[in-house]
């Protein structure tokens, strides 16, 4: 009790940093000294322990932090989809929240037991339609922006997201989406007779979705399509000259990324039970873009780390009340100065940054001489 909140936070950060880097070095040296068989066995043991930890985590932390874990998992799911569009394909999308809204509204309209309900489908029956709607709208957005790059693409996608939000608020679409009143009475998911009506149970649903998205992302990254995305990201003109169909490649990136966002929106609608247009503002897109940058572009572990930092950290800093956002901003500034490639960068992009720094240093040394 002799410390004030700022001093306590500084001491905690310094202690964690020294302990983390020391432990990381010692662990890395120990791991490298193992034989291939021992490494394989160790990987299996750590995988099993990690799965058991994830399964028991919501019951260890309680209701409030379980809800925070659900939100983190939802952003991980969105970040994995946006990572395809931004990290792999190099297409800056600031209207990503629109696909999140499409998934949520589709789930609400198809499953609601209120006056806006259109079918008698349950969560699992409506889920494929929610993802399909997101994919279709990803294609619809992709066609007009095929020839746009950089800032122009970001502005157009930003406008697309705002158009969807305004339309959801309008009286014109109120008979379909409820307007400002939203869609109410969305039932909770059920599996084998168990109603997922608590944060702990919904946590498992969003983790399953994130694991599925990560598996699909890894398979796509290592495929021919993934290499085409990365080639297009580096230089569209060269990629096209090498025979890559830019139209098809861009549309696939938009469609697959939109499908993941719609999946997250569908799970969000089932968790909340009511959806309103104000839940789909531009800050969701900004947070999704920020987390993949903070974690490391094109890095799947980086998406998880970025979500933990950008979504989980503000929850942990609530004890500091008015200082919370100040410390949050300072930590982000420090991160960008110390780790510009992200906390868990993708190896290829990290090496590219190192090579660029070495090139700049050698050119500076040559000019001085």
Question: In short, what is this structure?
Answer:
By secondary structure, this protein is an all-alpha fold. It has helices spanning 5-32, 36-88, 97-111, 123-142, 150-169, 174-177, 199-221, 224-234, 236-241, 246-272, 282-295, 300-316, 324-338, 347-368; strands spanning 190-191, 194-195. The protein has 14 helices and two strands.
Q: How would a crystallographer describe the biggest sheet?
A: 2 strands, antiparallel
Q: Order of strands across the biggest sheet?
A: 1-2
Query: What order do the SSEs take from the amino end to the carboxyl end, as H and E?
Result: HHHHHHEEHHHHHHHH
- Residues in β-strands, percent: under 5%
Model regions low in confidence, pLDDT < 50 over at least 5 residues: none
The chain-level structural class is mainly alpha
Bulk shape: globular
Instruction: Work out the helix count.
Output: 14
Report the strand count. Answer: 2
Please bin the fraction of helical residues: over 70%
Please report the distance between the alpha carbons of the first and last residues.
57 Å
Mean pLDDT over the residues: 85
What is the chains' assembly state? Answer: single chain
- Rounded to an integer, what's the Rg over CA atoms? 22 Å
């Amino acid at each position: 009790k002799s410390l004030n909140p700022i001093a306590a936070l500084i001491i905690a950060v310094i202690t964690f940093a020294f302990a983390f880097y020391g432990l990381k070095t010692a662990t890395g040296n120990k791991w490298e000294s193992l034989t291939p068989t021992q490494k394989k066995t160790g990987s299996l043991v750590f995988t099993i322990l990690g799965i058991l930890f994830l399964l028991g985590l919501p019951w260890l932390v309680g209701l409030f932090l379980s809800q925070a874990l659900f939100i983190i998992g939802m952003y991980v799911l969105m970040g994995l989809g946006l990572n395809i569009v931004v990290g792999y394909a190099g297409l800056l999308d600031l209207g990503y929240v629109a696909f999140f809204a499409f998934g949520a509204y589709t789930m609400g309209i198809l499953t609601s037991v209120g006056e806006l309900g259109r079918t008698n489908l349950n969560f699992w029956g409506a889920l494929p339609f929610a993802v399909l709607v997101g994919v279709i709208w990803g294609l619809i957005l992709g066609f007009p922006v095929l020839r746009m790059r950089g800032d122009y693409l970001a502005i157009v996608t930003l406008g697309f997201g705002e158009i969807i939000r305004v339309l959801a608020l309008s009286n014109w679409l109120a008979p379909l989406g409820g307007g400002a009143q939203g869609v109410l009475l969305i039932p909770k998911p059920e599996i084998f007779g168990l109603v997922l009506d608590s944060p702990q149970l919904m946590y498992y649903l969003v983790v399953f979705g994130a694991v599925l998205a990560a598996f699909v992302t890894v398979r796509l990254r290592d495929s021919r399509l993934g290499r085409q995305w990365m080639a297009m990201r580096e230089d569209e003109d060269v990629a096209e000259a090498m025979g890559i169909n830019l139209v098809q490649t861009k549309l696939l990136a938009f469609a697959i990324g939109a499908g993941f966002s719609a999946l997250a929106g569908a799970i969000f609608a089932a968790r909340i039970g009511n959806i309103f247009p104000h839940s789909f503002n531009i800050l969701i897109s900004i947070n999704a873009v920020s987390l993949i940058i903070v974690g490391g572009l094109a890095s799947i572990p980086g998406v998880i780390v970025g979500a933990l930092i950008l979504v989980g950290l503000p929850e942990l800093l609530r004890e500091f009340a008015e200082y919370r956002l100040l410390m949050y901003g300072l930590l982000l500034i420090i991160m960008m100065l110390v780790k510009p490639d992200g906390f868990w960068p993708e190896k290829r992009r990290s090496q590219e940054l190192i090579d660029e720094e070495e090139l700049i240093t050698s050119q500076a040394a040559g000019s001085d001489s």
